[in-house]
Amino acid sequence: KMSNWRELFPTKLTFIIFLLYMSLFIGQGIFVTASQESNNSYSYNTVTVVLLTEILKLIVSACLYCRENSLRSLLHDVHKDRQVLALYMVPAFLYCLYNNLAFVNLATFDPTTYYLLLQLRVVVTGVLFQIIFKKYLSRRQWISLLLLTIGCMLKQVDLNSFYSDANDDSEAAALQAGVETATVAAKAVAKNMTGFDFSISAVFILAQTIFSCLAGVYNEYLLKDKGADVNIFVQNVFMYLDSIVCNAVILLLRGELLDAFSARNLGSIMRFSVIIIIVNNAAIGIVTSFFLKYMNSILKTFASALELLFTAVLCYFLFAIPIYMNTALAIAVVSYAIYLYTQSPVVNLGKVRPLAQLSEATVNPKDREDKRKLLDDQTGDTDLEMD
Length: 387
Hints:
Number of helices: 17
Largest sheet: none
Structural class: mainly alpha
Low-confidence stretches: 165-189, 371-376, 378-387
Distance between the termini: 18 Å
Shape: globular
Strand content: under 5%
């Protein structure tokens, strides 16, 4: 068990990144839901919010890089690795679509249902992971992924119908049924809490799921393979520069590029309920890059599944969103799938060494490797190398 834990989290810092990732994503669903109007719409331009989030990510990443390096060095690295910058346009475009669809889908689904449906991405991620990294999953790993998918599908099964008494025709039962029907109908208008309803909302959630899978696995590929020799903060700068371009293009196509930054629109954004979304989502982006570089996209899907437990409880207390039997059962199956996965986790470090201290991330990967080899030559101790 200790060996499995070490494989999941090679260092204490990776475990902290795991917890941060979960906490920030839980906050995303709750903060976005809390910022909605009574009719589930938004009083602010959501694309502008995504664009401002990318700008904040860019500023933070540049500042973190410049703690140990100069601005001239950053500009030099951006120019030197411009081919990697071009490659980042693919995940940047996919994340752009994903981030904007998050606002659309959270206006349709309650946060718990939203996160459950997004877990359908785990099998797709598993297939893409095998294709891109050529690391084939074991039977136990596939069983855990399939159980995770089944748990998500249980969310749309109406278990209450199995307990209904069709032979009870008393007046009290009829009145009670009428009250319950009215209550459910009112909630259905407010939020979709039953899963797929074969409408445009199902198309949007499926699209967001696919974009998430493609972006996550391809981003991990760039972090660990093509861009493994590039400083992680420089890689983040690449990602966020491309993301800013993508979101600006969306605003331009919608004819809102100039109006998006008008005093009226900016005034609607400069509220605590919206600023906290920008800050939280910016933190998500930066933490995700560390997650994918020093762990992997398979573990990332399980971290997302764990968010369900906390999201369901928090939404019950904050928004009075009930936890139905199918939701509880779905969460139970997802939790068991996570436990099963921890018995045989995927390990995919690629060309990257485990991160023990945050300061190591600011060091050029080539320089760190040269120092490691020099130390090995001096001591003759090859145990420092970690597979």
